[in-house]
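Re: the 287-residue chain
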Amino acid sequence: MEPADQIGIAVHQLQTDGYAVLHEALPVSVIEQLHEDLQGDFALTPYGTGMFYGERTKRFGRLLRRSAATQCLVLHPVIQDVVSRILGPWCDRIQLNTTQAIAVHPGAPAQLPHRDQDMWQADFGKREYLVNVMWPLTPFSKKNGGTRIWPQSHGSNALTAVAEDDFIAPELVPGSALLFLGSTLHGAGANASAQERRGIVIGYSLGWLKPYENPWLAYPPDIARTFPPELAALAGYVQHRPNLGNFEGQCPSILLGDYKGEPLGAIDALRPDQVQQARAFAHGRSG
C-alpha cells in the first residue's frame, strides 16, 4: 500500500473509530534493536506506585537518550503525517508529548479505563489534543494485558458514558503500531499470562500544551544537540507561534548551536495573520 493511502485510511479510522492499526509499520529488526537496548532499563526500573500506574507494571521515559532506535518510531513519516492532519487544525506545530516504555507483568490487574486528554483541564469534545502510538515490543493479546480500546468513545462521545464491556483488545505483533486519540477511552488489560507484556508509547500533542514529559529535562541541550533538527524541534527546541516556548525572546534552537551566553535581542515569532495585523497597524499609525 502506498504511504498516501496508508495516511488517508489511518486518518479516516481515527476520525471514525478513535483508533487505527498500522501493520508492518517498521521492520521487526528495528523493534528488536530497541528492545535489546532497553533490556537493562526494564530490569532496573522499579514497579510503579499507585492504582493508575500499576504496582505490577514498570514504566520509564527519556527513550531518545536510551536508544537511538527510538528515532525511527518518533519520526515515522506516515505517523507524522497522520498526526499532523489530526492535530494540525488546532496548533501551529505538534510536539512530542512522551516517549515511554511499559512492561505489564504477570498478575497485573486491568488499568482504569481513561482518556489521556484528561491530563489537561480543557474544552473537550470540540478538538483533539493528543495522538498516542503504541508500539509492541512483545506480542499483544487480550490474555497478556494488551491495550484495551473502546471504539467510537472519542470526540464528543467522550462526554457520555461508555459500557465497560464494549472494548476490544487488538492483537498486535512487533513492527505494528496502534494509534489512538487522546479522547479515546483505553487502558492496559489484566495480564493473565506467564509473560511480561512490553510496549512503547510515543505521544504527540498540540504544540501549545504543557507536555506529559518535560522535554528540556529529559533532553537538555547537550543531548538535543545530537538530534536531527526535526527531532530537536519535536522535543521542544522550537517556538510555537506566537512567541511560545522562547529563550530570551528567541527560538530555543539557538541553544543547540554555538551560543555562549551573550545577551540576545528578542525576535518576533508571529503567525502570518498576526504579521498582517502588525503591518496594518504600523501602516495606519504612520499614515
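The longest strand covers residues 94-104.
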